[in-house]
Specification:
The chain is mainly beta. It has two domains: about 35-190, Sandwich (Immunoglobulin-like); about 200-265, Laminin (Ribbon), CATH 2.10.25.10. It is built from three helices and 14 strands. The strands form four sheets. It has a six-stranded mixed β-sheet with strand order 2-10-9-4-5-6, with no helix packed on it. A four-stranded antiparallel β-sheet has the order 1-3-8-7, with no helix packed on it. A two-stranded antiparallel ribbon has the order 11-12. It is elongated.
Length: about 270
């Protein structure tokens, strides 16, 4: 007696009680160390073709063009990205000076007088800022040093090196925590103040007396008072006495006025 069994080839099985378990896996990117040469300097214009010398002078409020670039790179290397995360100006070569002015903060302009034209997307970073003078600093030592915190990112290790948005609602990761920062400095850049032809007539430039000499306001003081180190404010002898700098500028001002008086008398 022959018995034949027929079984279906395909079966449909329903499971209604399966709950998928979702897990988040954090993948740490590989970190490597390298040695890079960074060139940081000031330039005459936005085409960055004419680099200024270390003793260059600019006039307020002219723009200062700055560039931080990887140097001595083979032309075939295109994977290294310069990221300037913070830049600030000081009136001395000390980056930790208590007197400073922020130019770039969190990789974006710190104020409306600074423009970042390239950052986080090339082997160099470009930015420009409006020149200015420091308050309570004599004209003879008006100069600017700029210091920047810089990181170098490798596109081969991190595909989001160019993740940067400086919009009003900008949100970005802290690249300095992902790539060890380094510090570079440029300067000094000497500053020549801009004077209005009626600086003395407007009042307020000098605390006491003001005269226009060679299109520049020159301050002087009444009897018993001397110019402070900012060469604009008069102080009493009893308010601290004469410092070496104040004595120098007092003598220099006297000589300038003496020469001017002689010139006018000879005419």
């Amino acid at each position: 007696m022959n018995v034949t069994c027929l079984l279906p080839v395909q079966q449909i099985i329903n499971f209604t009680k399966i709950i998928p378990e979702i897990q988040t896996i954090q993948v740490l990117q590989t970190e490597v160390s390298g040695r890079f040469n960074l060139d940081f300097g000031f330039y005459a214009s936005s085409n960055y073709s004419n680099k200024l010398t270390s003793d260059a002078t600019t006039s307020v409020p002219d723009l200062v063009f700055a560039r931080i670039a990887l140097s001595n790179l083979p032309s075939s290397v295109r994977n290294l990205i310069v990221q300037a995360t913070r830049c600030w100006a000081t009136n001395t070569n000390d980056p930790t000076s208590a007197r400073y002015y922020n130019l770039i903060s969190n990789s974006c302009p710190a104020d409306s007088f600074t423009t970042v034209t390239r950052n986080h997307n090339s082997s160099y970073a470009n930015f420009q800022f409006q020149s200015f003078t420091w308050t309570n600093v004599s004209l003879a030592v008006q100069k600017i040093y700029v210091h920047c915190q810089v990181s170098v990112c490798d596109l081969n290790l991190n595909a989001t090196c160019d993740d940067l948005n400086c919009g009003n609602d900008r949100k970005r990761r802290d690249v300095s925590s992902m790539h060890p920062p380094h510090y570079v400095s440029a300067g000094p850049l000497f500053i020549s103040p801009h004077y209005s032809p009626d600086a003395c007539a407007k009042g307020g430039y000098c605390s006491d007396m003001c005269r226009m000499i060679d299109d520049k306001p020159v301050c002087s003081c009444g009897r018993g008072r001397v110019l402070a180190e900012d060469m604009r404010t008069c102080i009493n002898f009893s308010s601290g006495g004469l410092t070496a700098n104040t004595t120098f500028y007092l003598v220099a001002t006297f000589l300038v006025l003496l020469v001017v008086a002689y010139y006018w008398k000879s005419k």
